[in-house]
Write a structure and sequence with these properties.
By secondary structure, the protein is α/β, with parallel strands linked by helices. It contains 14 helices and 19 strands. An eight-stranded mixed β-sheet has the order 12-11-8-13-16-17-18-19, sandwiched between helices. The longest helix has 22 residues.
Length: about 425
């Protein structure tokens, strides 16, 4: 099977080397990981430095070798935190009996044990030790603890050992370890690709941002919507394989990759363009735009001069874009949004029914941490009754992560067998 090794160029591997004669294999392992395109940084314990020098790993990895817990050259001397955040995978090879015991006990008295506790990255250990040390009950107990904690333990191989014994305890060959790492990330890439195909072949139209309703040539009525959520959903839909058209109100955001963007200003123009997109063909319509409920009845041709303490402006109701699209004979799958400041779920459930939507996502914009200008969001998703699907609570996360979850919800509803009601 062939692999596109370029997909690994943004993957960061920390290879941790502990004390043991197998440390010489780790030098070859660095070379093999680099051959696959991974970025590699090496962490060495004091025991490892008794077997092989840091200079060897620096030459092979092309990066400085990390040996100390408190690094005076790192920002604020907290190099272990920087490393913990940098890593996509921590591979401990060889993993000594002592290191395994530290991990199991939760000790943090050196750089490696502290990294283990500070990282969110997957941790793999490749034990290498005397066959009797491997078989010892405390070692097996510690290994069981690591497995329960989510650590991937790579079984040692059997054979002759440096001490003269024969049995389990040899570290696997560097080529085999590098192959396992490559396969792990390749499978992860494949899983992402499969996930990103959730809307493959679908044409999606998304409205985003605010609308502006002119009062005169220099003044308008609008709201605080930034369009961030809608733009994040547009990017997520494209990544999910959809052909995406984004009807954007006046916002200062970059257009997501490969998304067709059409700028509009007023609610009327957004409705006109939405109807045009419906005529061109649309499978999913996602209405994230914060459309102004009212517009000025008569827009002044010239700037209104300041006169007196009051200015009376007559307003008329704007058309409801999502409800209008939902009423069409050839309607797409309709997704609405409800940005409320109180009784959020109650109002959202009412809009779902009243506007004949398939799905609605609601959030509380009165919360400063997930409001209009925030980069994070939290939502509750409701589905129309005929789908017979439970509501989904999307916990607080970045708007990009929320967008991915919304794509999954749309996919699930599209492929859910609708029961008659």
């Amino acid at each position: 099977m062939s692999f596109d090794l370029s997909v690994f160029s943004n993957k960061n591997i920390i290879l941790a080397v502990t004390g043991g004669i197998a440390a010489y294999k780790s030098a070859i392992l660095v070379r093999r990981l680099k051959d696959y395109g991974f970025n590699v940084r090496v962490v060495m314990t004091k025991g490892a430095q008794a077997f092989i020098t840091p200079l060897t790993f620096q030459a092979l990895s092309g990066n400085p070798v990390h040996t100390e817990l408190l690094d005076p050259e790192a920002e604020a001397g907290m190099g272990h935190i920087e490393l913990a955040r940098w890593a996509d995978l921590i591979l401990v090879a060889p993993a000594s009996c002592d290191t395994i015991a530290k991990f199991a006990a939760g000790l943090a008295d050196d750089l490696l044990s502290t990294l283990y506790l500070a990282t969110k990255a997957p941790v793999w250990v490749a034990p290498a030790m005397n066959q009797q040390m491997w078989a010892a009950k405390p070692t097996q107990r510690n290994l069981n603890t690591l497995v329960e904690d989510g650590v991937h333990v790579i079984m040692p191989e059997a054979g002759s050992q440096a001490c003269g014994d024969v049995g389990l305890g040899r570290m696997p060959e560097p080529e085999d370890l590098a192959e396992q790492v490559k396969n792990y990330f390749h499978q992860a890439q494949r899983a992402i690709a499969e996930k990103f195909g959730l809307l493959a072949g679908k044409r999606v139209v998304i409205t985003a941002g605010p609308t502006r309703e002119a009062i005169d040539p220099v003044r308008y009525i609008s709201n605080h919507s930034t369009g961030k959520m809608g733009f994040a959903i547009a990017a997520a839909c494209y990544s999910a394989g959809a052909k995406v058209t984004l009807l954007a109100g006046p916002v200062s955001l970059d257009t997501p990759n490969a998304v067709r963007r059409i700028n509009v200003s007023s609610a009327i123009k957004m409705l006109d363009e939405s109807m045009h997109q419906l005529e061109e063909g649309c499978d999913v319509f996602i209405a994230t735009a914060a459309v102004a409920d009212y517009r000025v009845a008569e827009v002044s041709e010239h700037k209104i001069k300041k006169a007196g303490d009051e200015l009376n402006v007559s307003l008329v109701k704007n058309p409801d874009i999502v409800a209008t699209i939902a009423q069409q004979s050839k309607r797409p799958f309709m997704v609405g949004f409800a940005a409320e400041t109180r009784n959020v779920e109650e109002y959202a459930a009412g809009k779902l029914v009243a506007k004949k939507l398939d799905m609605i996502a609601c959030n509380d914009v009165s919360r400063a941490d997930i409001g209009f200008a925030s980069d994070q969001n939290a939502m509750t998703v409701f589905f129309a009754e005929q789908y017979q699907m439970e509501k989904r609570d999307l916990e607080k996360a970045s708007k990009q992560e929320i967008a991915q979850q919304l794509v999954e919800a749309i996919h699930d509803a599209l492929h859910h067998e609708i029961e008659p009601i």
